[in-house]
Design goal:
Blueprint (H helix, E strand, L loop, with lengths): L1 E5 L3 H10 L5 E6 L11 E4 L5 H8 L4 E4 L6 H8 L8 H7 L2 H10 L7 E4 L2 H11 L3 E5 L9 E4 L5 H8 L4 E5 L5 E9 L5 E3 L3 E6 L2 E7 L6 H17 L4 E10 L2 E8 L9 H4 L4 H10 L11 E8 L5 H5 L4 E5 L9 E9 L2 H14 L1
Parallel strand pairs: 1-2, 1-4, 2-3
Antiparallel strand pairs: 5-8, 6-7, 6-8, 9-10, 9-11, 9-13, 11-12, 12-15, 13-14, 15-17, 16-17
This protein binds adenosine monophosphate (AMP).
The site of adenosine monophosphate has 13 residues, from strand 14.
């Protein structure tokens, strides 16, 4: 059985690595010939708007999924008329537009930061009266890893932010004084079976995920239930199939949704070694209608992204419990080129390993 994956980045690569033991084969589609998944499987290079290339890609595939949420909805919908596509393209549509996404959350009763659509400079001024200061101005589309957004601390920041982001659809959000950032990964199969991973604590630097701790330390069961309840509503509303990630802010012991990703997620990489079944394997089980695997953690894990640097492998691997993942990408400043997962029996042991790892990186 061959599975098609739109997008050939590291997430696709890790999907393939999880699928080979299940006897699956993969074919990737990416606009870039050097897409990292191409090192392990067939890669069709083409533009997402090129129906000829999409048709060649889809030929003989059993089903299709994606590892990149900015796949044009039209391409996913065109393919969905020819073969099963999971998650449903409507999930892409919601997740690609921050305004649609926050409106969707609101409709499900899921708390979000206060937000306001901005098209013109006067919308921005009106919006700031509602959100107050500080606020965050973001592009509605194509923002990721903190790109396409500006923190507005005071009126002095307005002009520069408008100069940089104005002229495209924007969203203004109240700045959330969160205690920490968490994420929940959920998975739903074609049979409707649902499972949740434990909440993960995420640390960002410059808008890019740097470190995840899993399970999130000192997290009451009540918070886990709240996150699962939110994720379940999203899964059911979208008739979702596959892994879904929701990024959350913890504010005074409650959870607010920031955004969702209709795919496997960076904050779930720890599951490869740190959970009974990885997010990648469970995504494949879900889209194939196979029973989902246990999401139980195996001890305590930390995941560190390798951003713009390639450490000496031996220095990482000599740390007990460390697992190195290299994506086969050229190192460039600010680029995610790999990650390291540390696994330990106790939080104390994890802390010791983490201190060693952070010294190496
Ligand atoms: P995003 O691209 O929306 O995930 O934003 C990237 C990062 O910016 C988040 O992980 C937060 O650390 C921060 N951020 C985004 N929106 C807000 C907000 N409304 N209030 C406070 N911090 C935010």
């Amino acid at each position: 059985m061959q599975i098609g994956v739109l997008g050939g980045g590291q997430l696709g690569r890790m999907l393939a690595l999880a699928g080979y033991p299940l006897g699956l084969r993969f074919r990737f589609f990416d606009p870039l010939a050097e897409a990292p998944a191409g090192q392990l499987a067939e890669l069709v290079v083409g533009d997402y708007t090129d129906e000829g290339a999409l048709a060649r890609f889809a030929e003989g595939l059993s089903l299709l999924t994606y590892e990149f949420e900015n796949v044009p909805v039209a391409a996913a919908a065109w393919l969905a008329r020819r073969l099963p596509v999971y998650p449903p393209p409507v999930a892409l549509e919601v997740a690609q537009d921050r305004l649609a996404e926050k409106t969707f959350f609101q409709g499900l009763g899921i708390p979000t930061p206060l937000f306001y659509p901005v098209q013109t400079y006067s919308d921005l001024q009106d919006g700031l009266e509602r959100t107050g200061w500080p606020a965050v101005l973001k592009t509605r589309r194509l923002g990721y890893d903190g790109k396409g957004q500006k923190l507005l601390r005071s009126p002095a920041d307005l002009e520069a932010a408008w100069e940089q982001l104005g002229g495209q659809p924007l969203i203004l959000e109240a700045f959330v004084p969160f205690e920490r950032e968490l994420s929940i990964l959920a998975v739903r199969s074609t049979s409707g079976q649902v499972a949740f991973y434990p909440l993960v604590e995420n640390h960002h630097v410059g808008g890019i995920l740097r470190k995840s701790l899993a399970p999130a330390p000192i997290t009451p069961a009540r918070l886990q239930h709240e996150a699962e309840h939110m994720a379940r509503r999203v899964l059911e509303k979208l008739d979702y199939v596959g892994v879904l990630a929701i990024e959350l802010f913890e504010v005074e012991g409650t959870l607010w949704a920031n955004e969702m990703a209709p795919r496997v997620h960076n904050s779930g990489h720890w599951t490869i070694e740190g959970a009974e079944t990885s997010q990648f394997e469970n995504h494949l089980r879900a889209v194939l209608g196979l029973p989902l695997g246990s999401t139980a953690p195996r001890g305590h894990a930390a995941m560190l992204n390798l951003i713009g640097l390639k450490p000496e492998p031996a220095r990482v691997l000599e740390i007990p419990g460390a697992h190195l993942h290299w994506y086969g990408k050229e190192v460039r400043p600010g680029r995610k080129v790999g990650h390291v997962t540390l696994r330990a029996g106790t939080p104390r042991e994890l802390e010791t390993g983490l201190a060693r790892l952070e010294a190496v990186l």
